[in-house]
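User: Reviewer 2 asked us to show a designed sequence for the structure in our supplementary figure. I'm pasting the structure tokens here. Could you produce the per-position amino acids so we can include them in the response letter?
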């Protein structure tokens, strides 16, 4: 049980880092005469910042049509599952209930950030898939450990 608690604490830390990185400047561009830094989370919180950001991303990615809904949905999912997994893991720190939510967060961090090219425009983007892989490995090992413990308890009942 101690190992599962440590794995859950590490998962909480990774989810917190995911949240913090959402509010770190990600894209830097000029809008008229001023230089603007936009965080990833601004795609969710301030949709009014879409126009200058969309213009910058179109120029950088060399595309005519740019849909910001896909990255906004990816970012929202990562933020939602980060907060949800923190609460689920804190609620049952020694149990496996938060592992499933953290596992989903890990998959969103890997899949979401690899498949959206506009999220590759800052070197910090690689932190999300790396944290996602760590979350996947940690939570799968936590579930395996919990299954092993429950099997041992079941066997001890019959012995």
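Assistant: Here is a per-position design you can include in the supplement:
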């Amino acid at each position: 049980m101690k190992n599962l608690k440590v794995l859950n604490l590490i998962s909480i830390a990774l989810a917190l880092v995911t949240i913090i990185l959402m509010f770190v400047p990600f894209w830097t561009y000029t809008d008229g005469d001023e230089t603007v830094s936009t965080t990833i989370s601004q795609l969710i919180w301030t949709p009014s910042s879409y126009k200058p950001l969309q213009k910058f991303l179109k120029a950088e990615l060399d595309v005519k049509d740019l849909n910001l809904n896909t990255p906004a949905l990816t970012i929202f999912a990562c933020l939602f599952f980060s907060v949800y997994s923190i609460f689920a893991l804190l609620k049952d720190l020694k149990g496996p209930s938060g592992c499933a939510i953290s596992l989903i967060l890990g998959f969103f961090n890997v899949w979401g950030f690899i498949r959206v090219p506009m999220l590759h425009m800052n070197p910090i983007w690689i932190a999300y898939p790396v944290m996602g892989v760590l979350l996947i490995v940690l939570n799968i090992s936590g579930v395996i450990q919990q299954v092993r413990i429950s099997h041992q308890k079941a066997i001890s009942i019959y012995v």
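For the response letter, you might also mention the following. Residues 2-25+69-158 form one domain. Helices lie at 2-22, 42-45, 50-61, 69-91, 97-115, 127-158.
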